[in-house]
C-alpha cells in the first residue's frame, strides 16, 4: 500500500478541487485523483471557462461590427481572426487550471494522476497503485447525453467540447436542445456569422426557467437572428461530404422532413459519469438515472464514501458543486456543513443574460402558494439606456402574506451579476420591502432590482 490519507477525492472539478482545499484547510491529509492532464474538471477545461471566453470574444466582435456605430464609433473593415480567438480561449483556460495546481501546492494536496477506482471502502487504486484513506469523496462529474441515431464525431456532429473547438465558422449550425449549452454556444457562432437553427423537443426554451422570461428570451434571440424549431424532434442524422442531413419531425408525431447543416451541436442534457469507478463492487447505490444516491448530506449508503457535484442529484452547476465540496469536507471534519438548495442561482451567459433564483411563477401556482409579483423593465433604467442595453426586465416574486422573497427572474444586461443581490437577500430571508428600502447607487443596473422590489407593492417610481 502506498500513502495513507484522511480524504481521497476522486475528480478535480469545481466540486472535487474545492472539497480538497477545504479539507486541507481543516487539517486533513488530502489527495485528489484526476485522470485529465490538467486540474479543474469539465468547468475549467471544456465548460464554464472556455465557453465564457468565447462568449466574451464573440460579443465584442458583434458589438464592434454592429453596435459601436450607435455610439458614434466607426470602424472600417472589421475582420475575424478565429484562430487567435481560439488561442486566447486556450490561454484563459491554461491560466485557470494552473491556478488550481498552485492552490493544491499551497495546501499540500497530492494530485494522484490517473484513473481512480474504489476497490474497498477505505481503498482507492490509481492506475495499479493502491492508497488507503479514511474517507473517499466521489466527484466524478458528468458527460453529455447521447442522442440515438445522431453519432457524435466531434467534427461535424459535436458536443459542447467540439462545439468550442471549431476552426471555421459553420455556414449553418443546427443545435439540438434549447437549454443552457445550446443557447450559449448557439449565440457564439451566430455572432461570428453562422446561421443558427435550434431544434427543441418542448414548445419552449430553457424549461427550468420562468416561462415569461423564456418567452422574452426567445423573442430577443429571434431578433438577433437565431431561428427556432420548437416542439420538434430529431430522429436521425446522415453525414456526407457536404455536411449533415438531419431528419426531424413534430415531437407529437407527424410528417418528417430533412434539415441540412454544416455542423450539428448535440446539447440535450448531461448525465452522471461513474465509468470504471468500481461503485458496483463496493455496493454504492445509484438511482435510475445513474446518479450516486446520498442521504441529502452527501453520505452514500457505504460508510466512509461520500459524493458531490454533477454525479449526484440537483442542478448541474459549478457553484452548486463547489458549495457541496465545502459542505462535505466540513461534515467529514464533524462540522455541520450544508447547502441551501432554495437559493442557487442559474445563469445563461448570452446577451442579454438570463438569471433565475428560487421559485418560478409556474412552480408557485402549481404549489398553490399565494404570491405578489413586481416587474421593472430595463427600458426605464437610466444606466441601461446609457449602455444601449434596454432589452429585458427584472421580476421579483414575494409571499402574499409575509412578503418574503420567493424567487427572482431577470433577463437583461449583466443579469448574472444582478441576481447575486437577490441571492444574498434570500439567504437572509429578506422581504421585498427590505430590498425596496435599501439605497442603491445611481445610475446602476441594480436600481432595476430595487424598482422591481418596489413594484411588488405597486410603488415603483420610474414606471
Ligand atoms: P466535473 O467538473 O465534471 O469534474 C469531474 C472530474 O472528474 C473530471 O475532470 C474527470 O476527468 C474526473 N474523473 C471522472 N472519473 C474519474 C476517475 N475515475 N478517476 C479520476 N478522475 C476522474 N456551470 C456553471 O455553473 N456555470 C457555467 O457557466 C457553466 N458552463 C458550462 C458550459 C459547458 C459547455 C458545460 C459542458 C458545462 C457548464 N457548466 C457550467 C456545468 C459545470 O461545468 C458542471 O456543473 C461542473 O463542472 C460540475 O463539477 P463537478 O466537480 O461535479 O464535475
Ligand atoms: P439542458 O438541460 O440545459 O437543456 C437541454 C435541452 O434539450 C432542454 O431544453 C430539453 O428539453 C431539450 N431536449 C432534450 N431531449 C431532446 C431531444 N431529443 N431533441 C430536442 N431537444 C431535446 O442541457 P444542456 O444545454 O445540454 O446543458 C447541460 C447542463 O450543463 C445544463 O443543464 C446546466 O446544468 C449545465 N450548463 C450550465 C451553464 C451555465 O450555468 N451557464 C452553461 C452550460 C451548461
UniProtKB/TrEMBL annotation:
Keywords, ordered alphabetically: Disulfide bond, FAD, Flavoprotein, NAD, Nucleotide-binding, Oxidoreductase, Redox-active center
Matches recorded under InterPro entries: Class-I_Pyr_Nuc-Dis_Oxidored, FAD/NAD-bd_sf, FAD/NAD-binding_dom, FAD/NAD-linked_Rdtase_dimer_sf, Lipoamide_DH, Pyr_nuc-diS_OxRdtase, Pyr_nucl-diS_OxRdtase_dimer, Pyr_OxRdtase_I_AS
Residue positions binding NAD(+): 177-184, 200, 269
Protein name (Swiss-Prot/TrEMBL): Dihydrolipoyl dehydrogenase
Domain Pyridine nucleotide-disulphide oxidoreductase dimerisation per the UniProt entry, residue ranges: 344-453
Top-level taxon of origin: Bacteria
EC top class named in words: oxidoreductase
Assigned EC number: 1.8.1.4
Positions of FAD binding: 52, 116, 140-142, 310, 316-319
GO biological process: 2-oxoglutarate metabolic process; cellular respiration
Cofactor (UniProt): FAD
Keyword Disulfide bond found: yes
Amino acid at each position: 500500500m502506498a500513502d495513507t490519507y484522511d480524504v481521497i477525492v476522486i475528480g478535480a472539478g469545481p466540486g472535487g478541487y474545492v472539497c480538497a482545499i477545504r479539507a486541507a484547510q481543516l487539517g486533513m491529509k488530502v489527495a485528489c485523483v484526476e485522470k485529465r492532464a490538467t486540474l479543474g474538471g469539465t468547468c475549467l477545461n471544456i465548460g464554464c471557462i472556455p465557453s465564457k471566453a468565447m462568449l466574451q470574444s464573440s460579443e465584442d466582435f458583434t458589438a464592434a461590427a454592429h453596435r459601436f456605430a450607435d455610439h458614434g464609433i466607426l470602424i472600417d473593415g472589421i475582420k475575424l481572426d478565429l484562430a487567435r480567438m481560439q488561442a486566447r480561449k486556450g490561454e484563459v483556460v491554461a491560466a485557470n487550471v494552473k491556478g488550481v495546481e498552485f492552490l493544491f501546492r499551497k495546501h499540500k494536496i497530492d494530485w494522484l494522476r490517473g484513473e481512480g477506482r474504489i476497490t474497498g471502502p477505505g481503498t482507492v487504486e490509481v492506475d495499479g497503485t493502491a492508497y488507503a484513506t479514511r474517507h473517499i469523496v466521489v466527484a466524478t462529474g458528468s458527460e453529455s447525453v447521447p442522442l440515438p441515431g445522431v453519432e457524435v464525431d466531434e467534427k461535424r456532429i459535436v458536443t459542447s467540447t467540439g462545439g468550442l473547438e471549431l476552426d471555421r465558422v459553420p455556414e449553418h449550425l443546427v443545435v439540438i436542445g434549447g437549454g443552457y449549452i445550446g443557447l450559449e454556444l448557439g449565440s457564439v457562432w451566430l455572432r461570428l456569422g453562422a446561421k443558427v437553427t435550434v431544434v427543441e423537443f418542448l414548445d419552449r426554451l430553457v424549461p427550468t426557467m420562468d416561462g415569461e422570461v423564456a418567452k422574452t428570451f426567445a423573442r430577443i434571440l429571434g431578433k438577433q437572428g437565431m431561428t427556432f424549431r420548437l416542439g420538434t424532434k430529431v430522429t436521425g442524422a446522415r453525414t456526407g461530404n457536404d455536411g449533415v442531413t438531419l431528419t426531424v419531425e413534430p415531437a407529437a408525431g407527424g410528417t418528417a422532413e430533412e434539415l441540412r447543416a454544416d455542423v450539428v451541436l448535440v446539447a440535450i442534457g448531461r448525465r452522471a459519469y461513474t465509468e470504471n469507478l468500481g461503485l458496483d463492487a463496493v455496493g454504492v447505490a445509484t438511482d435510475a438515472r445513474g446518479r450516486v444516491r446520498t442521504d441529502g448530506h452527501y453520505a452514500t449508503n457505504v460508510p466512509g464514501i461520500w459524493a458531490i457535484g454533477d454525479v449526484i442529484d440537483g442542478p448541474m452547476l459549478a457553484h452548486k458543486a463547489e458549495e457541496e465540496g465545502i459542505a462535505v469536507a466540513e461534515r467529514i471534519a464533524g462540522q455541520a456543513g450544508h447547502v441551501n438548495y432554495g437559493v442557487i442561482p442559474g445563469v445563461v451567459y448570452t446577451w442579454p443574460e438570463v438569471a433565475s433564483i428560487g421559485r418560478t411563477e409556474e412552480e408557485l401556482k402549481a404549489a398553490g402558494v399565494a404570491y405578489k409579483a413586481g416587474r421593472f423593465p430595463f427600458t426605464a433604467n437610466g444606466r441601461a439606456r446609457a449602455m444601449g442595453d434596454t432589452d429585458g426586465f427584472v421580476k421579483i416574486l414575494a409571499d402574499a402574506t409575509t412578503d418574503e422573497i420567493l424567487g427572482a427572474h431577470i433577463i437583461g444586461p449583466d443579469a448574472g451579476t444582478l441576481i447575486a443581490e437577490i441571492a444574498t437577500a434570500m439567504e437572509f430571508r429578506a422581504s421585498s420591502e427590505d430590498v425596496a428600502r435599501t439605497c442603491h447607487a445611481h445610475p446602476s443596473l441594480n436600481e432595476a432590482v430595487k424598482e422591481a422590489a418596489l413594484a411588488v407593492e405597486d410603488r415603483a417610481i420610474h414606471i
